[in-house]
Write a structure and sequence with these properties.
The structure is a homodimer of 199-residue chains.
Chain A: H1 4-15, H2 21-33, H3 36-52, E1 54-55, E2 62-63, H4 69-72, E3 80-84, H5 87-96, E4 102-105, H6 124-132, E5 137-140, H7 146-158, E6 165-168, H8 184-192
Parallel strand pairs in A: 3-4, 3-5, 5-6
Antiparallel strand pairs in A: 1-2
Helix pairs in contact in A: 1-2
Chain lengths: 199, 199
């Protein structure tokens, strides 16, 4: 019904996660009024993304070079590695701005039920880094699910006889949460990991 | 924080209507995994959209030619024109599939408060069509707002002494609506425009 170019755009937008028919239509029609410079940059970025964007050889984060800007940053504490599930998490931690160590992106979590075993995610390269770099602490920052816990446990076991501290980010009631809406599992976890306030 | 190409993509997605920071990020990262063919088509469509997509010389609908496919379709009833506010409405009517006449896209509604006067929207070209084409009925299909009513009234006045029926789509309680949630204005309209069921 729409002219072909617009139909094509609608189809492309519809393939994006979370975009339905109506939103795709609205976004495609927006392009009719968007400024030329933006459309040019948009199209170029789409064509370049696969050529330019690679994974960092050290931490598996996104980069346009061999090694990412975080691994390359000499002002960072290269003795700490924060292990995360996927790339997005790196940028979440970077946004808070208080973590100054390095990262390691697993690209998944161990999940025997889905046939995802330790060798299917980037655990091997993490162990290599512990052997070759001067790492003092590994902070495991994955979600508190069965897969997350399995992955955390596997990594801590694998690092048992290396001279490195393995820690896990705290799980519990999130800031600003209404206690009425906190689920039972989170409450149980929060209770278990309670902190003594006396000292 | 992300590599430049991804940052650029996020910026472009964020300019789209209804897309915030998080969705833009998700959509940009999706492009990393999208297939090459789709990215190619996406980029080409973005670059072509302004060159290829124009307005129909007759009805102001979108087209890649001088006259749109609807105006060009000889099987359609060229004696009826459905007047709509914007392009999207044409495709809404086309989706129901039961209207076989032509369209006229106003590109706005009269709104003196916003300084939008009859000459700022495509009413002049509508009047010309009535003079030059063999039109028997003009169906006004704009929303039932102050602007919509003003526009409908203006058009019906302007066509008063032409030999053409001017009608307006029915307004009332929408299909499937829960009566509890229908607003007072719609109910008032529905009551006023009630239909006699005896004959």
């Amino acid at each position: 019904m729409y002219p072909e170019t617009i139909n094509n755009l609608i189809e492309c937008y519809k393939k994006h996660p979370g975009i339905g028919e109506k939103s795709a239509e609205r976004m495609a029609l927006y392009c009719l009024e968007a400024d030329d410079e933006m459309l040019q940059m948009f199209a170029e970025s789409l064509l370049n993304i696969k050529k330019k964007v690679k994974r960092c050889k050290k931490c598996n984060n996104l980069t346009e070079n061999d090694v990412c800007s975080i691994c390359n940053d000499e002002s960072r504490d290269s003795s700490v590695i924060c292990v995360v599930e996927d790339i997005k998490n790196v940028f979440q931690f970077e946004k808070i701005g208080s973590y100054h160590g390095l990262y390691h992106v697993l690209d998944g979590l161990i999940s025997p039920l889905d046939n995802i075993n330790p060798e299917d995610i980037n655990i091997g390269s993490l162990l290599e880094r512990i052997d070759n770099e001067n790492i003092k602490e590994v902070i495991i920052a994955v979600k508190p699910s069965i897969e997350g816990e399995t992955t955390a446990l596997y990594i801590s076991k694998a690092l048992e006889d290396k001279n490195v501290i393995v820690s896990k980010i705290a799980h519990g009631v999130p800031m600003g949460a209404d206690m009425d809406y906190v689920d039972a599992l989170t409450l149980e976890l929060a209770l278990e990991e309670r902190k003594n306030m006396n000292n």
